């Protein structure tokens, strides 16, 4: 009987070990935002060869949008550069953030005569970009792509910054789904979303940078709306409670060097600069 008990105990230990071994890869994210962690932002370029640009790239994002280096570009007429359409969307928990995925033609933005089509919207907390050193409470990214003749895509991202205040209409629209969002990498329909409600376009910054998460691909055209919106504390906390625990405190990459890049602020001649 003693030998049988020992054998059962060993089998139980091995079984539990196998479960733990399978669980570890899911519990430990590939990359994180804790600067004291072995998979923190300063180590992203060492985790995978495909992510080397996170370490070696010279035009990385995010950056500080500083009035000391910005070149002001006055433009006559309207600064509206987008045409968006209401479109059905799904909400997904990607583990490190929450994304709204647009289905069908949600519209586009025009950059130097090229159309970039809106594909997805997601959030970072706190903001990744800063303005004159000030970091805001939330940043929304609208990801656009422009198909090229060689089969590749160019990417343009529109960023919107938020400070605590009144609730944000877009998050109010989807927060009922955030309460009971499906598991990581699953999607849930949220009905129709109108991206035109997000933009103002009175003034905006523009520069060439990178994705702010691995693989940190460069050549991304960034447009940051200068108008600061408001979001409630509860809405940001709801976003935090949705993602995996390692990402809950923050999912914002630290600022990257400007490295002599051109930073422009487009303003209407009919609008005051500040």
UniProtKB/TrEMBL annotation:
Q: Which Pfam families match?
A: Carb_anhydrase
Cellular localisation: Plastid, Chloroplast stroma
Q: Which GO terms describe its biological process?
A: one-carbon metabolic process
* Bilayer-spanning residue ranges: none
* Residue stretches in coiled coil: none
Reactions catalysed, semicolon-separated, are:
hydrogencarbonate + H(+) = CO2 + H2O
EC number, UniProt record: 4.2.1.1
Extract one GO molecular function annotation from the record: carbonate dehydratase activity
Say which enzyme class the record assigns.
lyase
- InterPro entries from the UniProt entry: Alpha_CA_prokaryot-like, CA_dom, CA_dom_sf, Carbonic_anhydrase_a-class, Carbonic_anhydrase_a-class_CS
Q: Which UniProt keywords apply?
A: Lyase, Metal-binding, Signal, Zinc
Spell out the GO cellular component terms annotated for this protein, sorted alphabetically and separated by semicolons: chloroplast stroma
**UniProt xrefs under SMART domains:** Carb_anhydrase
Query: Could you say which residues form the signal peptide?
Result: 1-23
What the entry lists under CDD domains is as follows: alpha_CA_prokaryotic_like
The cofactor(s) it depends on are: Zn(2+)
What does the UniProt function comment say about this protein? Answer: Reversible hydration of carbon dioxide.
Q: What is this protein called?
A: Carbonic anhydrase
